[in-house]
Amino acid sequence: MFTDLTAFNGAEFTTENHGMSADVINKAFLATEEDFLNLVKEQFETKPQIASVGSCCLVGIICSGLLYIANAGDSRVVLGRLEKAFKEVKAVQLSSEHNASFESVREELRSFHPDDPQIVVLRHNVWRVKGIIQISRSIGDAYLKKPEFNREPLLPKFRVPNSFEKPILQAEPAISVQKLRPEDQFLIFASDGLWEHLSNQEAVNIVSTCPRNGIARRLIKAALREAAKKREMRYSDLKKIDRGVRRHFHDDITVIVLFLDFHLISNGSSCRPLVSIRGSAGVSGNSKY
């Protein structure tokens, strides 16, 4: 599981269905969404800004040799697969972003909201849902899902000018299922802050050629160096930028690298076959990576 700030509900559904499936994962996403929206309802009058809080959610599950990927938002998972003929590890993207910058996402939004010509708006050369947010799916963001939260005391900048009847954003994930191969080496789960500065193949090259220890931090450092280079500044100077200002230079970056052991996976071993190495860099300017 990879998510910015949500807890994920799922165990009860695997028991109910006697195993893993896309339906189990979808139910877990919706249960997580429901729990969070109930929290918003409880606290809205005293803490109205909670209605504007949301998170992307990217989940990876390995069960019986199958890899399940579920995504709501603009995080991404990339697989490193060994191409034996070329003796190279190639990048294979396993998820697609729900971001209004993609024509397919804009078309999906228009199909869901045929009577709303302002469902996506181009503002300052950036496509945004209702001119506010770039993502089309998330956990939370209650103010764009429940009209009861699109009102005072929520700040005007978060409110949609016109009322709406059905949710503007969705919580349902896009889910893919595939069988793992012996040549599948590792998975990189990362927020969009990483992919803004590194291509899929650049990230895979770093993981495949560097020691495992600290590999997520190495990816983050590489992304921050690229962010500094784009601004024609030194990496050391970027790290000194104060909280709040740094967001203008790079987004939050969170990374999990998962190494795969096909022998253990295919045998259905009860041992933990995966090594998870995490790294995170915020925009506070306090990151040590």
UniProtKB/TrEMBL annotation:
Signal peptide: none annotated. InterPro entries: PP2C, PPM-type-like_dom_sf, PPM-type_phosphatase-like_dom. One of its GO terms (molecular function) is protein serine/threonine phosphatase activity. SUPFAM superfamilies: PP2C-like. PROSITE patterns: PPM_2. PANTHER family: PROTEIN PHOSPHATASE. This is PPM-type phosphatase domain-containing protein.
